[in-house]
Amino acid sequence: WKNWAEVKIPANCKGWVAGNRGSELRRMEQVSGTYMFMALDERGDERLLIFGVNKGTRSGQGGRLHAERLVKDLIEEKLLDDRRSGSGGGGGAGALGRSRSRSSSQRHRRRGRSSSSSSRSSGGGGKRRR
Length: 130
Fold this sequence. Notes:
Elements: E1 4-8, H1 14-18, H2 23-32, E2 35-40, E3 46-51, H3 64-85, H4 94-101, H5 104-110
Antiparallel strand pairs: 1-3, 2-3
């Protein structure tokens, strides 16, 4: 049996899938219990490799199949967003492309946090400047 999966990433989705400094890959690794990285195949095309002992299931949480589903959902989200905005390009836009096409409240919702919650208190406390 093989303990890895391979996902082809469209050129205009690489930055979106990887996230700023790999943050999206790291997030998906944490959620699925896998290890992921981009690599070139024998033709020089880039692909995402997903490693993990647990195969998982297509509908369940954790494992390679779960990670693969998370990656494909991100690709679908990016392609849909590009179609809506009328843009088709933007290779490895990374954080710039991400911030333009996905609001921070959408990112927080996806990660299971409420966009209205704040870590700051509205009351007093702390030092005041005079």
